[in-house]
Amino acid sequence: MQKTHGFLTSLRYRLSRGRSRERLNRKSPTDFPGNESTDYAADYSSENSSSVTPGQTPKHRSSTMSSSDTTKKEALTPSTDTYGNEFDSGNMNIPQGAIDLLHAEELQRKREASLRQHVFFQLRIHLRKGVNLIAMDKNGSSDPYVKFKLGSQLLYKSRTIHRDLNPEWDETFTLHIEDPFQPIVIKVFDYDWGLQDDFMGSAKLDLTTLDLERPQDLSIKLEDPSKPNRNLGEIKMTISLWPRTQEDKEMHFQRSSKVGESSKRLKSQIWSSVVTILLVEGKNMTNEADGSPIYEPYIKFRLGNEKYKSKTSYRARWLEQFDFHLFDEDQILEVGLWSKNSVLGRCTIDLSKLPRETTHAIWQQFEDHHGEVFINLTISGTTALETISDLTAYRENPKELEAIRSRYKLIRTVQKLRDVGHLTVKVYGASGLAAADIGGKSDPFCVLELDNARLQTQTEYKTLTPNWNKIFTFNIKDITSALEITVYDEDRDHKVEFLGKVIIPLLRIRSGVKHWYALKDKKLFNRAKGNNPQILLEMTVVYNPIRAAVRVFQPKEERLVYQEPKFKRQVFLHNVNRLKDMIMDIINVGRYINGCLEWESPVRSIIALCIWVCCCLWAGLEIIPVAIVLVILKNWFVRWITGSAYSYLDDHYDEVSDDDEDENQEIEQKKSIKERLQAIQEVSQTVQNTIGNIASLAERIKNTLNFTVPGITWLVALLTLLAAFGLRYLPIRGLLIAWGCWKFTKRLIRPNAIPNNELLDILSRVPDDDHMIMYRELPPYMGIETSKRDTRKKFKIT
């Protein structure tokens, strides 16, 4: 460059001297020597050829060639050579503006030459504020934020300043630049609660106009090609460009490659947690003008770039679940109340202030509306280590365990009657899962649900034997509840695929024992797909028995999210068989009594006659609860002798095959028939569910007496004995009057009490035979013999 500069300086000196000599010797304007023109042409051609040096890139070559054109112009301006001699161009009458322009071009050329000497840069930007931005909302304001882009790549996005045309961001960030000759595009948007944000203007930042290592204050005016004559405001910022070495460039790209590999491993999802939102209901959903109900209201959620919309509901009760991925920079959940494509109210929830790994029941008030919305929100699935749910960093504290046990001692029964117990679940890992992806692997994660509380682990990618190593805690409100554990496979579009499930009643948990539990299919009747899939758990349950007994007499907590059962031929036949079995049991009892009356067996008939006479002479109504207690004792004795009271289930239930493929084929072939029989199908669905409910109630009564749930059975036995003593020593009329007074005055004493039947509430805690099959524990995978076992064979309950 120094040699080129010296050559061009001498060339300008020769050119200036030649023109002075020409003006002195010339006699007419047209008197030009031909050899002078030839010399000039040769000089220009040599200048052009000397401006291109070997090894330059095309971008550098074009820039250097353009700088040579600038050099031609500079030959007409006052200048000095390398020896300090000035060139006089006063006789050429060049305007001062042209001279300033040539000086600016010379300065720009020097900046570009300086930029080419470095291979990497750091651009430090202090985004200060915006001035007189355009209003995009109806209220005459905007919610602006700024994006910095390089080509199609987003470099940085600022935070959103709500309702301000002169926002002050005051954000400082650093960008890594490899090519300073490519401009950075600055775009300003108005944040909108709709599906797309409004464009407010853009500008280009030319890095070649910056001086290296010197901060510069810039005021960049915004432009919009569709609004060329409108003032869109400006953005004020402080920018400095700092050169970096080749080592800094290599280190940057090395870190970028690691982040890229990590992103690829996580399927381009670098989220920190999963936010599960259960939208339950709303209240005060009325128009503020006339107080009329809002027409088909619905809720919109937005967290970062993820958006969800609920269904419309006339009664403002949705019961929908949504899953969001929580990023570190997006911690504000936005909730909007909509009707007829117009927003009625908005509110925000700061997720950074909510504790992780617990379910929060939140009534949220809207800012612009008097209505409220009720949601269950859980932040779980944390990917970061050293969290409260990380089992590898967890150390048991004996003092904390003792504090938990002391909280549920009998001497503290009257304290917090609704706090029944505490459940701790350690999820270690799983094995033998089915391959859900094309590569023969899965991306499994585990979901734990207790009533309406829902937690989940992080996702382990590309494995069939995940190790989650998480510990979760639940507050037990009902000891008769069951813990549901489901393993899913995560897909790229955030959908899930079922891998296995197991349901464990709290009363059947073996506290402090690490145990493998076999995963079942969706129907929970048999093993799930895979190589004998199972999950390793360790659970600890601590509860107060008196509080648990009191809670049994209250209505069971409603499960908010459930799938409405549809009509299926297999389910219909299954429920008919269940009802048939119970009816046959009643018929057999009637035949037995009829056999006694018919003297089919003389010995049996004589014994029955003696019992009947004795009961009529000396017994009263107390014989009924006594008989129930005798049945309970008989079943307890059988259970004590055999060691299990559930073996009879294997005689009645076989594996239920899935007819989904056959049904799908029938649907494809008989669509017109389905449309014609739609009304009949609805009636059949009602009959199916009614039969199922009747069969379930009958089975619950039977299982109440046979120690299916030992705590409930002993409680029923105690109550029946108390009833027997009451019926024996208290007048029946007084009992009936007391019972009637209680039923009639219950509404007066407790106006907000839920209408219920104590007997049905107790029976609702006892599982029917279908639930018992779901609760039964399959034997864990122990070796080759178990793996060769036919999966369609019956399993005995242990």
Automatic annotation (TrEMBL):
Gene3D superfamilies: C2 domain. Its main location: membrane. It is a multi-pass membrane protein. Residues 45-56, 77-91 have a biased composition (Polar residues). InterPro entries: C2_dom (IPR000008), C2_domain_sf (IPR035892), MCTP_C (IPR013583). Coiled coil: none annotated. GO terms for biological process: regulation of neurotransmitter secretion. It comes from the Eukaryota. GO terms for cellular component: synaptic vesicle membrane. Pfam families: C2, PRT_C. It comes from Hermetia illucens (Black soldier fly). Signal peptide: none annotated. Residues 19-29 have a biased composition (Basic and acidic residues). Residues 103-220, 255-370, 406-521 form the C2 domain. The chain crosses the membrane at residues 606-633, 707-727. Keywords: Calcium, Membrane, Metal-binding, Repeat, Transmembrane, Transmembrane helix. GO terms for molecular function: calcium ion binding. SMART domains: C2. It is found in: Membrane. This is C2 domain-containing protein. Residues 1-91 are annotated as: Disordered. The lineage of its organism: Eukaryota, Metazoa, Ecdysozoa, Arthropoda, Hexapoda.
